[in-house]
Amino acid sequence: MSQPSTVLVVDDTPANLGLVLESLGAAGLRVLVAESGARALELLAQQPVDLVLLDMIMPGLDGLAVCQRMKQHPVWRDLPLIFLTAVDDPAQKVRALEAGAVDYLNKPVHPPEVLARVRTHLDLQAARLALQRKNTQLEAEIALRLDAESQLAQSLDRALLIADREGRLVFQTHRATHLLFKHLAHHQPGRLPPELVRVERYQSPAGTLLLHRFMEQGNDALTVLYLIEEHAPPGPAELTKLGITPRQAEVLYWIAQGKTNAEIAIILGTSPRTVEKHVEQLLERLGVENRVGAAAQASELLRRLPG
């Protein structure tokens, strides 16, 4: 059974709010009363509170000062706060809202209206906290998934694909992406090429792909494919011998294959602008003026390697 919400009522003459206190209690809310701003801060420090009804004009620590203290406190700053005042001054209402209040009521208050507003802001606060918890949970789950996928995609040198029963690719390593574009240059990104759906061996002008399939017994929702290039020729990794980074080597490899920056961006799962920056750095590192010169150096190195 859930605990009743706690409302802290702060007023230097709480007897004037007798009907309001009775109304809140009758609605099943737990009510705390503080007769000064200092006492209100003591109660906030002693026990959890869900909403504060705060008189704006009090001797000593007034409502605005209490509000300011609350907004500076990491635990209290997000509590919904409703100001109460006997002064019907629009400028004062603006100051109250600017200070962080969620609502403002003029005295003498009407108990049913107070109860309705308290319930509304308690419901809004509960919804906000539930959404915050859900977002935190989702962010944690997404972070774990992205971290796992990144580690798998970046660290595995194997060509692994995971496809659902509709042929959508839900995961693929960089090596798998590389082989798909090499052997099926015009395939639709994000989908398993029809040519690979039922075969164990695929012959393309670029060579031969061997396919190994893995599927959970009795469950065809996902299929794992392991691609192996038969008699694989030298690939991007060999181009690091030119003194460039592994990522730059991937970009250079595809430049040598005649791909545009936009096509390379799709293959590598990045943006064309990022590819452009890699190309600029490549040209400078290799000491060439254009893509043709870079491609020539890559082709010459790959040609000399056994494969």
UniProtKB/TrEMBL annotation:
Domain Response regulatory, residue spans = 6-122
**Where in this protein does the record say 4-aspartylphosphate is found?**
55
Give the matching Pfam families: GerE, Response_reg
SMART domains per the UniProt record, alphabetical: HTH_LUXR, REC
Q: Could you confirm whether the keyword DNA-binding appears in this record?
A: yes
Q: Which SUPFAM superfamilies match?
A: C-terminal effector domain of the bipartite response regulators (SSF46894), CheY-like (SSF52172)
Q: Which UniProt keywords apply?
A: DNA-binding, Phosphoprotein
- Report the record's Gene Ontology biological process terms: phosphorelay signal transduction system; regulation of DNA-templated transcription
Give the Gene Ontology MF terms in alphabetical order: DNA binding
Q: Which Gene3D superfamilies match?
A: 3.40.50.2300, Winged helix-like DNA-binding domain superfamily/Winged helix DNA-binding domain
Domain HTH luxR-type intervals: 236-302
Instruction: Give the signal peptide as a residue range, or say none if absent.
Output: none
- Any idea what this protein is called? Response regulator PleD
- Which species is this UniProt entry from? Lacunisphaera limnophila
